[in-house]
Amino acid sequence: MTKTSRPKMNPSNDKTVGGELLERLGKFTKALEHTNRSADLPAILTVRKVKSSLSPHVYSGQQIKAIRLQLRVSQPVFADYLGLSVATLRDWEQGISQATGPMCRLLEEIERDVPLWAKRLREMAEVGD
Questions:
Q1: How far apart are CA 22 and CA 33, in angstroms?
Q2: What is the pTM assigned to this prediction?
Q3: How far is residue 127's CA from residue 46's CA, in Å, rounded to a whole number?
């Protein structure tokens, strides 16, 4: 059985993402080898911190009421649309309790495009005689 040898890759000629990564890692390795003190590291390294919060916004009662008023619906209609009791929505709007988790995320989405959600709400509403 004979071994087949792979062609050696020259990272500088490889224009793929992998080639670019190998080239940059090579430069990084050389820079680290020539660094004498850890104090010199900030000169050769770029450190970035990205802060992000994926937690939903916590809404006050006034903010929830403002969203409902922008939609131009009553408490019973908005509560039904959100799948809540009217008492729960009233408690939120009066600041007795707070919306949490997924409901806050839904409120964010409604707030982002009120006209779209108002249209959807009206399409789903049943109009009585």
A1: 16
A2: 0.58
A3: 61
